[in-house]
Design a protein that fits this description.
Blueprint: H1 3-25, H2 33-51, H3 54-78, H4 83-106, H5 126-143, H6 146-156, H7 158-163, H8 168-195, H9 206-216, H10 221-243, H11 250-269
Helix pairs in contact: 1-5, 1-8, 1-9, 1-10, 2-3, 2-4, 2-8, 2-9, 3-4, 3-8, 5-6, 6-8, 9-10, 9-11, 10-11
Length: about 290
Amino acid sequence: MDLAVLLVYAAPIALAALGELISQKSGVINIGLEGMMLLGAFFGMLAAYLTGSPWLGLGLGVSVGIAASLASGWFCISLGADQVVVGTAVNLFALGLTGSLFRARFGASGQLLSLPKLPQFFGIDPVILLMIASIPAVWWLLAKTGWGLVVRSAGEYPKATEAAGFSVNKFRFQAVAIGGAFAGLAGAYLSIGVAGSFAENMTNGRGFIAIAMVTFGRWKPLFVFLAAVLIGFFDSLQYLLQAKGVQVPSQLMLALPYVVALLVLVIVGKGTSAPASLGVAYRRED
């Protein structure tokens, strides 16, 4: 299989997972990742379609992802609401909003949409290059900077972080916003760079897989990326088999990436060490 093609299929999950890694390191698990990707996919598609610029599409996708993550963060971080409940609400809101707007603007089908393509550099588009560069960048940001140290501390020992003079909630908001930017970019790339179109619920569980890949990758950027590439391989396998004339039930091929994600999570999930305060809202003690 062509490596460039494999990376294209892996990119939406890999980008979302790298952003989710940063968010989880701060202590916030973004169950609404699926919805943020879907919002990025729709509004990114819409901007690219109306302006003819894939760059504006990607930019709007990132902006929408950040806005959605900050809104979610307000409930989870500022108000201390249950992160699973808030994330589920984001997913349902995104599904309903994008579906309604899509049908209102384009009808029931988006197959006739024609989106501008991203430029290629040596057979690879810039988003793939950004994804590859993000692996060492995320590692460096979390492991080698003062900001990363505080973020990791907020996810492990928030009381100690606050005692050291840092605002836990402030750093969690920053981490969540970065995660939202990655999610929005992942969604916009899915519609613009991968599908070249949009369909209702086109993320189709990729956000949940990205969350699982963070656990599979043991919260390490390189391992998270490789896990996403594994899922991308099975996601693209159906097209490879079709090209070679191999007849395989389409339902089986569509389900295969999710089955693989579930299996690897069950196999490697035991014994993984998540941030100690992951999913736990922090309340400052006066």
